[in-house]
Design goal:
Helix content: 25-40%
Oligomer: single chain
Strand order of the largest sheet: 2-3-10-11-1-4-9
Number of strands: 18
Shape: elongated
Structural class: alpha+beta
Order of helices and strands: EHHEEHHHEEEEHEHEEEEHEEHEEEEHHH
Number of domains: 3
Radius of gyration: 29 Å
């Protein structure tokens, strides 16, 4: 599956850097000519032109997007929305991309009137490139954007960064961010709104993928921390990927709280959760909660751990995981003279059979139906599956399968004991 990673974790994201990075990635600076023409046709500016310039950014070649605008004024409210949606229609955005534009306008509406032509260019331009490249049909992942520490001056006093408008948009979408001690607004409201509208998920680590192309966008204003990276690639097949183990030690938490935390972790997508007794500082007994999860779920599960247990820190270990090819099927079995259908999970590695496991719930239902211990049913079903597999292997190899020997049923075994 095609995947696009947007990485504003160090430098933040603005409308112009995101658009510039996509131009750099796709190598199509002229793709926005129709958009520029549609904006000029609105009649809100006497002049509108842009230039995509390839520049050296400290050893990295990036694209800087320069926009020249002479506006007649500003548009706000319904007029701005109407103009933006008209341009989206003129350039032929798909319905999905058009819906995202509408969502972004909802986020930006609280900020009041602004430079309409420039905002339309960055918002619709970004959607146009993503739409044409087919990224909406795949996965778009973003790292948490960096927010600066610039002072916002208001009539009632100064407010330290992050900027209130940007923070409000991220809070509306519950979109995670990081903060860096830079006296600048690294992420603007337009950048935050764009990111929230297009990213399917956030991840502190890149997802497992094979990279194909990399693009860099740099801000039109020269200065520190203005470089945004985007990476296009293909997600790795299900057989391999990155997983994380989250761990925390608890020495003052009740068993009820730990049990509920385990339930929530599973509900939030953890692959496995287990609790290990141990001894901690001053020989105090502690419970170690370990959580196995996909790297993409790390941030969400760390938040659950902290919310439910009150822990002040979580250790994160990253691993590369190889997964066997798995297949589920429903097969008929005869147990105790009765016919049942059970679900079976079969695993193979490099084309060779490695495991076969019947579904617990189905075995338990048979045990209750016949009034025998579960382990007897499990033994008999596994024997049936093993014989069936040997017969199938013999047929595929051209040899006769033969008849399986007579054996007692699970019910007979239970009665004998």
């Amino acid at each position: 599956m095609k995947i696009l990673v947007i990485d504003p974790g160090c430098s933040g994201v603005t409308g112009d850097t995101l658009l510039a990075s996509l131009i750099d990635l796709l190598g199509e600076p002229r793709a926005l000519y129709p958009l520029a023409g549609a904006i000029r046709d609105l009649g809100i500016c006497r002049e509108f032109r842009y230039e995509a310039e390839r520049v050296d950014a400290g050893g990295v070649t990036a694209t800087r997007l320069s926009v020249t605008i002479r506006e007649e004024g500003t548009l706000g409210g319904d007029d701005f929305r109407e103009a933006c949606m008209a341009v989206a229609d003129d350039v032929g955005l798909s319905s999905g991309a058009r819906d995202r534009v509408s969502s972004i306008l909802d986020d930006l509406a609280a900020g009041g009137p602004g430079p309409a032509a420039e905002t339309i260019f960055s918002v619709v331009g970004t959607m146009l490139l993503l739409d044409r490249a087919g990224f909406f049909e795949g996965a778009i992942v973003a790292t948490p954007p960096a927010l600066g520490s610039a002072i916002t001056r208001t009539e009632c006093g100064d407010i330290p960064g992050p900027a209130p408008a940007t923070l409000a948009i991220l809070a509306r979408h519950r979109f995670p961010f990081t903060s860096v001690p830079v006296d600048a607004d690294l992420t603007t409201p337009a950048g935050a709104a764009l990111l929230a509208a297009i990213a399917k998920r956030t991840a502190s680590l890149y997802p497992a993928m094979t990279p194909a192309r990399v693009g860099y966008g740099i801000r039109a204003s020269r200065g520190r921390a203005g470089l945004l990276r985007v990476v296009e690639g293909e997600s790795l097949p299900p057989g391999e990927g990155r997983v994380v183990m989250l761990e925390t030690n608890l020495d003052d938490t009740s068993g009820e709280v730990i049990g509920y935390a385990v339930e929530r972790l599973f509900a939030e997508g953890a692959a496995d959760v287990f609790v290990t007794p141990a001894f901690g500082k001053k020989s105090r007994p502690v419970s170690v909660i370990s959580v196995m999860a996909a790297a993409a779920d790390e941030d969400r599960l760390v938040r659950v751990l902290m919310e439910e247990t009150g822990t002040l820190g979580v250790r994160v270990h990253e691993f590369r995981k190889m997964v066997a090819d798995r297949r589920r099927e429903t097969v008929p079995v005869s147990v105790g003279g009765r016919e049942y259908r059970i679900r079976v999970k079969t695993a193979a590695a490099s084309g060779r059979h490695v495991a076969e496991k019947p579904e617990y719930d189905d075995l338990a239902a048979i045990a209750r139906d016949q009034g025998v211990p579960l382990r007897f049913v499990d033994d008999e079903v596994r024997l049936l599956l093993s014989e069936r597999r040997r017969e199938r292997t013999a047929r595929e190899g051209g040899a006769g399968g033969g008849c399986p020997p007579d054996r007692p049923s699970a019910a007979d075994t239970a009665r004998d004991e």
